[in-house]
Specification:
The complex is a heterodimer.
Chain A (H helix, E strand, L loop, with lengths): L8 H9 L3 H23 L2 H17 L10 H20 L19 E3 L15 H13 L3 H13 L3 H8 L3 H32 L1
Helix pairs in contact in A: 1-2, 2-3, 2-4, 2-6, 3-4, 4-6, 5-8, 6-8, 7-8
Chain B lengths: L17 H15 L8 H11 L11 H13 L7 E3 L1 H12 L12 H15 L6 H27 L5 H18 L12 H27 L27 H10 L36 E3 L19 E5 L2 H8 L17 E5 L4 E4 L14 H14 L19
Antiparallel strand pairs in B: 2-3, 3-4, 4-5
Classes of the chains: A mainly alpha, B mainly alpha.
């Protein structure tokens, strides 16, 4: 099996398109963790995310001839995954959205400005029960509603600049910024709410 | 979330309060006569809101309008609460994103906020990691799916030129596998009386629910593990009724042996030979494969955890008995798509790791995974089918010694 370790994603993709079967395995393995996490967070269901993961790579195969290898592979892959995830959510019509127009606890009576320094977020290496945290994060994300959840996750997972996101999504730079501001604020607030609710439940038991 | 928080509540009727209505009227009049609107905050707020209506409709997809609608909700200010980042947080976020999420690139005063963003990011992207086995499994399933597509494309391309010579060569290599495949599409097997069948199906379905509960109770007192009688198998897992280390059914029988289920719970009413009654206290397994009604997931070494976050929850743990194993034990060719004999070959119940049960009219899951076979054999079958196809009616005997009758 050829050694792809020194090759970029785009080079590996070109090798796949040229017929090297090992190249596709390499791409799938490279993106297994990141893409599966992204999809799990987006659709809120690990099993469904696994199905979409497969569909995403199948779509990559089917659309391989349309990909311009001078561009980056990662955003293309995630955009396909996001489209598949959105299709699934729409199909199942089970978006348990929490519109931003709806008041979250703690913000009644007007616009709430979120100050991130006041949000109690555990540091990445803090020892928390992983399963519990996983559940709470998903709950917090589900409250955002799919559009904000999508832009938040795409930006975070792709680590793109605003300009790149604007180009990928085909929307104005200012819109990208405002969406991100809203998404981050809503996620921070949601996190506050779900953790507070969770600790209340813990105290009640 | 309580009931009143449900987002499906009907939208209340809303009306502009009188001052806002007045301002809106003035604004529209000023606009019509090309006068500058007032600079007071309330007017500017309405202007901002109206400006959103000028947002061009994106042609590339329906994504933008949906998001813009949400953005509209987010930007409404006084009348409807929303969530906004503070100015400093916005600055920190913008710098952080544009620096490729590099904390060091932030101004020193903004770094604490960058830390908070980094922590939020970690929250958003961290998920329970996959075990190496689960990762390998998903990679293989993905590759199988894509390979199926590639095979189908190749088959479609080669169809018009497929010649007898090619077939003969492949036959020589794959005769034993092909023999069982060619009859798969046309097999017809007797059906039972449908009313009786439905009643039996319902009882069988009930069995699966009982067993699901039994699995849960067993796992609760056995470190989350599904029933397991032995750490590994000998030469085969098919030898029902022999020693525990030679039969996967002995693993399922553990439920009976440990009083988590009865033999009747594990007896499908459609299986007339099903073993029921009081179990032999020394037994480790069903007496014979005929007495066994359900097939159990082949246990990997080390067993299977019921609550392992890395384990796909939709993995099938139990199903109506496999016709493939029955045929293999009897030494007759197997038919991959044959349904379980339990319900007149009409279909099979399955029980998944998440406790859900369902009825399948084909032994194939949504992701093309065949219940009765491991993936390498499924892949081989798929490739053979795509290269040889099913009998189309234009084949000829392969010489004078080739027995070949029809239809």
């Amino acid at each position: 099996m050829p050694d792809f370790t020194t090759q970029t994603d785009e080079q590996v993709f070109v090798a796949f398109r040229d017929g090297d079967p090992n190249a596709y395995r390499e791409l799938i393995e490279r993106y297994h963790d990141d893409l599966l996490r992204f999809l799990t967070r987006l659709v809120g269901d690990r099993a469904a995310a696994e199905d979409i993961f497969q569909e995403t790579f199948l779509q990559v195969h089917l659309s391989a001839h349309t990909f311009d290898a001078s561009r980056r592979f990662r955003p293309w892959l995630f955009t396909i995954g996001a489209n598949k995830g959105r299709d699934l959510l729409r199909k199942k019509k089970r978006q348990k959205t929490y519109e931003l127009s709806r008041s979250l606890k703690g913000s009644e009576g007007g616009t709430a400005f979120v100050d991130l320094l006041e949000v109690d977020v555990p540091s990445p290496d803090a020892a928390l029960d992983l399963a519990e945290r996983d559940q709470l994060v998903q709950e917090a994300l589900n409250r955002l509603g799919p559009p904000l959840r999508e832009v938040l996750l795409l930006a975070y997972f792709q680590r793109l600049s605003y300009a790149q996101i604007a180009e990928d999504l085909g929307i104005p730079l200012g819109t990208v910024k405002s969406r991100m501001h809203s998404a981050v604020a809503a996620f921070a607030r949601s996190w506050q709410v779900v953790t507070k609710e969770s600790s209340s439940r813990g105290e009640d038991q | 979330m309580n009931a009143t928080d449900q987002p499906n509540d009907p939208q209340p009727q809303v009306q502009l309060e009188s001052t806002s209505a007045e301002l809106l009227d003035q604004l529209l009049e000023a606009r019509a006569s090309e006068r500058s609107p007032s600079a007071d905050p309330a007017t500017q707020s309405i202007l901002s809101l109206l400006a959103l209506l000028d947002t061009p409709v994106a042609a590339e997809s329906d994504r933008a309008p949906r998001i813009d609608y949400t953005a509209l909700n987010a930007r409404r200010s006084d009348s409807i609460p929303g969530e906004y980042l503070s100015d400093l947080d916005q600055q920190a976020l913008d710098q952080w994103i544009d620096a490729g999420c590099d904390l060091e690139a932030l101004e020193a005063s903004l770094r604490p906020r960058g830390q908070a963003l980094e922590s939020l990011r970690a929250l958003a992207i961290d998920a329970a990691p996959s075990s190496p086995t689960a990762k390998r499994d998903l990679v293989e399933r993905t590759l199988t799916r894509i390979q199926s597509q590639i095979d189908a494309e190749e088959a479609a391309r080669s169809m018009p030129t497929r010649g007898k010579g090619t077939m003969r060569l492949r036959m020589a290599d794959l005769v034993s596998l092909a023999a069982m495949l060619l009859i798969a599409g046309s097999i017809a097997l007797p059906m039972f009386n449908s009313v009786k069948l439905n009643a039996q199906q319902a009882a069988c379905f009930g069995n699966l629910g009982t067993v699901a509960e039994a699995f849960g109770v067993y796992a609760g007192s056995n470190r989350d593990s599904l029933p397991m009688a032995t750490a590994g198998f000998g030469p085969t897992w098919m030898n029902v009724g022999s020693t525990p280390d030679q039969s996967n059914s002995a693993n399922l029988y553990t439920l009976v042996r440990t009083d988590h289920a009865t033999l009747s719970d594990l007896a499908c009413p459609s299986n007339e030979s099903a073993q029921t009654g009081t179990p032999d206290p020394d037994a480790w397994d069903w007496k014979s494969i005929e007495g066994l009604s359900y097939s159990y997931r082949i246990m990997p070494r080390g067993g299977l955890k019921i609550h392992d976050p890395a384990q796909p929850v939709r993995v099938v743990v139990m199903a109506d008995r496999s016709p493939v194993t029955l045929r293999a034990i009897r030494g007759i060719p197997v038919i991959p798509e044959e349904n379980s004999p339990n319900h007149g070959y009409a279909g099979q119940h399955i029980l998944k790791l998440d406790g859900s049960t369902s009825w399948l009219t084909r032994p194939v899951l949504e992701n093309n995974d065949n219940l009765w076979l491991p993936r390498p054999i499924e892949q081989a079958i798929h490739q053979v089918r795509n290269r040889l196809g099913i009998i189309e009616g234009n084949e000829q005997p392969d010489g004078p010694t080739d027995a070949f009758v029809g239809p």
